[in-house]
Predict the structure.
Amino acid sequence: MSEKNLIKNGYRKYSGDDIDIYFNIDVCQHSGNCTHSNNEVFNVKRKPWIIANNGKKDEICQIIDKCPSGALKYIKK
Ligand code: SF4
């Protein structure tokens, strides 16, 4: 999905140098997969709760690919 469509569909952007992460809270099932996988990138006790530059691009892709709801998306740079 293009960034334009992600934003149109309610996703918020969290920019990084190598990858941009997008999140839609209305879609999230709060499974905790993302936060358990990498708490440096995904940490709900922090604002912003997603910091793309705190992780490696490939690892972030793997985590987001396992998001059960589709609430997380990414676009590699
Ligand atoms: S893995 Fe996806 S569904 Fe689970 S908490 Fe993270 S964003 Fe929400």
Q: What stands out?
A: The pocket of iron/sulfur cluster is lined by residues 28-34, 67-69, 71-72 (CB under 6 Å).
